[in-house]
Write a structure and sequence with these properties.
This protein is an alpha+beta fold. It has helices spanning about 15-30, 45-50, 70-80, 90-120, 120-140, 155-160, 165-175, 180-185, 185-195, 200, 205-225, and strands at about 5-10, 35, 60, 65-70. Helix 1 (about 15-30) runs parallel beside helix 3, helix 5 crosses helix 9 and helix 7 packs across helix 11 (about 205-225). The longest helix has 27 residues, at about 90-120.
Length: about 220
């Protein structure tokens, strides 16, 4: 375990990827310094230095050494800090399956989610279709379980939980209703369970604030076009 190590996180308050890392650090009880990046302005010299390849958040800085990409950061946290719950199961196959679902959430839920708020017409409709189809698959995967790994809050839950505060924005800008309680009851119960956890409750921003932030980003993008 890394006892009195220096830990910093470069992030943006609404980013689901940064929120993943915040939740993970909280679950492990790790003290850290949070540094907010202004993504509408020029990226800070620290961010460009710590993540020179992508220049994106989140970046975890542990004793001066940076780790980028949220899924990789989650694995790093889990391996370095043994205190607190393990994010990944001990069985190699179960580990592989957890990482598969983290990848699924990114490629099949977050990517089409971007189409919902960044596009219009046929592209947006395609994003909505894939988004709902992915929720159907996740609903089936979660059925009969408290969390994606069974009874334990783990890697897949941490990867998915930040989207709880984004669903309202998807509905408003996509002009559709997800109807979790009726169509996705397992996910609906899972969301309620997650929100009761201190690590999630303390870090997730209000849904309306996320919506207003995305609208601001869209206006900024249009001005830059």
């Amino acid at each position: 375990m890394a006892g009195e190590d220096e830990v910093k996180l470069l992030g943006f308050w609404a980013s689901p990827f940064a929120l993943r890392v915040m939740i993970a650090l909280e679950e492990k009880g790790i003290k850290y310094e949070y540094i907010e990046e202004d993504l509408l302005s020029k990226k800070s010299p620290l961010l460009q230095e710590m993540n020179p390849v992508h220049k994106q958040i989140p970046v975890l800085i542990h004793n001066g050494r940076p780790v980028a990409e949220s899924a990789i950061i989650l694995q790093y946290i889990d391996e370095v800090w043994s205190n607190g719950p393990a994010f990944l199961p001990s069985d190699p196959y179960d580990q592989a399956m957890a990482l598969f679902w983290v990848d699924f959430i990114e490629k099949k839920l977050i990517v089409p989610g971007r189409c919902i708020f960044r596009s219009k017409g046929e592209e947006q409709e395609g994003g909505k279709r894939q988004f709902i189809e992915s929720l159907v698959i996740l609903e089936e995967t979660l059925k009969g379980k408290d969390y994606f790994g069974g009874n334990t809050f783990g890697m897949v839950d941490i990867a998915f939980a930040p989207l709880i505060c984004w669903f309202h924005m998807y509905e408003v800008l996509g002009e559709f209703k997800i109807m979790f309680e009726n169509k996705f009851p397992s996910i609906f119960r899972w969301m309620k369970r997650c929100i009761e956890r201190e690590s999630v409750k303390r870090n997730l921003p209000q849904q309306e604030r996320v919506l207003q932030s995305v609208l601001q980003f869209r206006r900024h993008s249009l001005l830059d076009a």
